[in-house]
Amino acid sequence: MEQIQVDNKGVLGSISLADIAALDAAGKDSLKKLIDGTGAGNDFLGWVRLAQETPASLLDDINATAAGMRELCDVVVAIGIGGSYLGAKAVIEALGNSFAAYRNEGVQVLFAGQNIGEDYLAELQDYLAGKRFGIIVISKSGTTTEPAIAFRLLKEQLEREVGRDEARKRIVAITDEKRGALRTLANSEGYKTYIIPDNVGGRFSVLTPVGLLPIAVAGFDINALVDGAAKMGEATINGTDTSALTYATTRNALYRAGKKIEILVNYSPKLHFFGEWWKQLYGESEGKDHKGIFPAAVDNTTDLHSMGQWIQEGERIIFETVISVEKTEHELRIPSDESNLDGLNYIAGKRVDEVNKMAELGTRIAHIDGEVPNIRISIPAITPFTLGQLIYFFEAACGISGHILGVNPFNQPGVEAYKKNMFALLEKPGYEKETEAIKARL
Length: 442
Ligand code: PA5
Hints:
The chain is α/β, with parallel strands linked by helices. The chain is 47% helix and 13% strand. The longest helix has 22 residues, at 384-405.
């Protein structure tokens, strides 16, 4: 197996090898807690062996459902938010054609329920009108407001356009086995359903049907994705791959040295949403008890022309983690031009990616010189297998990192605060006291 490489030499101007080694025992202990299930949040460790233990029959079933949806639909809308959205979006964007976001036998997968944008939803309804569309509605709790609104709207539209019986064939619900409004609704309508395991939290759920069904509908190889994660999982658990440990200890050593912000950097636009997925994973897992590295992300070289100045010369509280992709899928050379009016002939004949790689290297050196520590994570190429590896790598490192930090990496009590206020303001039944209290503050 080609492994993910973590190169942390680029941090040595800011911290020493000894600073990182000082966290080695805590890192190993944290990994052991994940493997043995003895740390805080151990009810949510289903992801640790999820890929290794995914039955072939489940993958077959998901692939068959995806094939069925592709036959009935030209567009499928995946409805969900947070962990019920970002993993599928990240993988589909990474693997898809930049201008179509699906390929092979796949159909277009659009997303809804990840915001409450009235224009977004109205324009989506316009786009879907008259098209053969289907819906995958995803909510672990089954009660989240954003996807519930989107589902109510699109379900009504679909039933109006094709009738309730046909709509039923084009809707799949992914939710808890027993609890929640979505489970009740799905059972009463007789939708095909998949279960989100109790012990897998939303942001760790991309390799459950939550991510796998939309990814399969879009035409990508979920077996290879799961295989990549399974291989990475085995190697992490049996200690033959220590990359997650290295990443976790290095970033915690940087945090202790005052580096409060981590920027995940990509040099491939296909990885933009991978950065969004990563931000949720680390932000929700670590930002608690008034602690935690703030996770940010940039797309280079695009953002070198916007955020580059801040990163190079702003406050020195940041470090960066670069996801470096060794090989692109396509080969494109810069043509020679006789007149050379643009002065580009000095790179004529070179691959576009060679230029990108020099931009990456030049930036790395400039940032290290500018006291921005740099961790480089390299993968051979963007494939379903390597994305599976990368997903497991970041999940494992996140669990280890959260334990080193001393927080429960698997809960997210803070996300309830806005919901409570929103329900109070909307006068949701059961929130009468909160409504009264919040109105008094307005
Ligand atoms: O990681 C999490 O648990 C959250 O981000 C959830 O995924 C998100 O709030 C959506 O929740 P649900 O799937 O219950 O609708």
